Amino acid sequence: MTPQAHAVQPVAEDELSQVVHGQHGNPHGVLGPHPHDGGVTVRVLKPLASSVEVRWDGGAVALTHEHEGIWVGVLPLPDVPDYRVAASYGADPIVLDDSYRFLPTLGEMDLHLINEGRHEQLWEVLGAHVRHYPGALEPVTGTSFAVWAPSARAVRIKADFNSWDGREHPMRQLGSSGVWELFVPGVRGGTAYKYVILGPDGEWREKADPMAAWAEKPADTASKIFESAYEWGDDAWLAERAKGSPVNGPMSIYEMHLASWKKHHDGRFWSWAELADELPAYVAGLGFTHVELMPVMQHPFGGSWGYHVTSYFAPDSRFGDPDGFRLLVDRLHQAGVGVILDWVPGHFATDEWALARFDGTPLYEDPNPQRGWHKEWGSHIFNFGRREVRNFLYANAVYWLQEFHADGLRVDGVASMLYLDYAREDGEWSPNIHGGHENLEAVQFLQEMNATVYKRIPGIATIAEESTSWPGVTRPTSADGLGFGFKWNMGWMHDSLDYLAHEPVHRAYHHGEMTFSLVYAFSENFVLPLSHDEVVHGKGSLLRKMPGDRWQQLANLRAYLAFMWAHPGKQLLFMGCELGQESEWAESRELDWWLLEHPEHRGVSDLVRDLNAAYVGSPAVWSRDNDPSGFQWIDANDAGRNVFSFIRRGSVDSPDVVCVSNFASVPHDDYRVGLPADGEWEEILNTDAEAYAGSGVGNFGSVTAVAGDWSGQPAHATIVVPPLATVWLRRR
């Protein structure tokens, strides 16, 4: 070898050993190019190579093996050139770019915001990102990797591109941020990878990327690099969405578990593309304004329905790649249907390859077992007291709304987050600093999350599944509320289902279960949920909750749905309920679509379609959902006849709608009902119509009201109220 004109920059042997064994916090300080003594010293780590050479435009230098797979040489140049490394393994040399010649891909401002817990677009700097750079030899395409692991002693990448041998790709720690980073040229989308993390206990752990945009299909557990090429077509939808607020608009939600809505005959899931071809037309055809998707974030166990998440930033790979999910959302928007995603920030899966003890310490989970372990669900609880963890979560909320154009998030298990004693006995929890049982850090997180997403994405909605009487769930954060747009009305759901479970002859004694919700109906912005939780685990289908023979069950269901659609609050119906599903839901099989071949089940589906049309077309039913003056009982006390009658008040441009529900098994032929005005009132909906497989009892399309006080109203009409039925009347 020709003697070198410049000396090699010396590095102590023990430091070289640290690099070789993956225990060096800054391998870039040893590896890569380093100007020294008028030349450029280059070190590369190629443990299995037989020879290594550095090439640049106009020259080449053979490197010398220095220590346990580290090769070194000096380029006779004053400045670092654009060079490549040619490594031989017994055959023709493999020419690669050098990861250790690149500057960090995170800037000082990024690191500052991460330290402060205020990086609202965290996914843009952490995780794996394909990047493109110009170069003197040729343009450079590669992938930057960045992961937050503040207690790690070292981090490596093992992946497809290094034959799953992480020794060649140790990462560098960026200051005191806890972030480890490496740019690997030549690596593109589709590549699988994991981080190998050396914890403070000296143990190496293989971990999926917490910020991965894609993941392998279960049961494989690696993360995958993804570079989106999707071009959206929903600009008109987003522009219109930004002008309004869901709280003041119509919202009728179809809740779905995508994997069991429809399946292939061999049990395979439909792909995102297959769902995009069929789901938008189905949901729009039924007149729903929104779908709510049970968690689409990557989860390893299908039986968890997505509520035990392992990759918070990755759509479920069982259906395809992330752009496939973008296609589904886009198609739904183009069909006029909004998309709400179930989101689970309260707890996470225990799988050892995911978030649990990520850097060898309780990093994402609360280290206090009284706060960090969820007894009821057997999962870890996030450390809401750590600002970086709160940042991870609320940035994740922004991510789904911004990157995937979601229109809202339904936040799972809010009550479990708010209370330190949730699902805990005495002695299993400790009070907060004020001696109370409120989880003050979780409250802070929820307020930060809501304030951030409403600031960044106009027109979206957050919805709390909150089952207690926590005050101000939908009050603005500026008024010390939690800041949600809506709250699930669990009290209405339980009370009304309890009432409907009784035989009609006994319902008079439970009349208050249907009227009590109006005592608090305007204390929050409510969604009325008939969700998946009510039709699973032995609870039976919604149809089978109803008493009586099959005709009576179907009639009860139809009457109940029309009562619900007229009640203050937005409504949510779980898939299958629109078919009058006989059996309870099971995620292992698709819905009983064959039921639609039967007129009585087709009738339920047609009723839901007509309910949604009447609802959207009658602003009185939704425009004043949060205004007590928009609702008035006509008669809340007719327990003897099992009848409820009320008015939804409209405006000059949206006439009042009157709802009369009869939950008795007999008709009331001469039922006098008070009405807000005299004149002709159109019967816009009758759940007993023959078109819905009812008995056909009704009012021939309209009734005429005459002046004269009745039930506190200035006019009245004598109407026919069918058995187990609800009618809607609207003044012409």
From TrEMBL:
InterPro entries reported for this sequence: A-amylase/branching_C (IPR006048), Branching_enzy (IPR037439), GH (IPR017853), GH13_cat_dom (IPR006047), GlgB (IPR006407), GlgB_N (IPR054169), GlgB_N_E_set_prok (IPR044143), Glyco_hydro_13_N (IPR004193)
Catalytic activity: Transfers a segment of a (1->4)-alpha-D-glucan chain to a primary hydroxy group in a similar glucan chain
Keywords: Carbohydrate metabolism, Glycogen biosynthesis, Glycogen metabolism, Glycosyltransferase, Transferase
Record: active site: 412, 465
Recorded metabolic or biological pathway in which this protein acts: Glycan biosynthesis; glycogen biosynthesis
Classification via Pfam families: Alpha-amylase, Alpha-amylase_C, CBM_48, GlgB_N
Domain named Glycosyl hydrolase family 13 catalytic: residues: 255-609
UniProt cross-references to Gene3D superfamilies, sorted A to Z: Glycosidases, Golgi alpha-mannosidase II, Immunoglobulins
EC code(s) of this entry: 2.4.1.18
Family: Belongs to the glycosyl hydrolase 13 family. GlgB subfamily.
NCBIfam families the record matches: branching_enzym, PRK05402.1, PRK12313.1
Chain's role: Catalyzes the formation of the alpha-1,6-glucosidic linkages in glycogen by scission of a 1,4-alpha-linked oligosaccharide from growing alpha-1,4-glucan chains and the subsequent attachment of the oligosaccharide to the alpha-1,6 position.
Assembly description: Monomer.
UniProt name for this protein: 1,4-alpha-glucan branching enzyme GlgB
Source taxonomy: Bacteria, Bacillati, Actinomycetota, Actinomycetes, Propionibacteriales
Originating gene: glgB
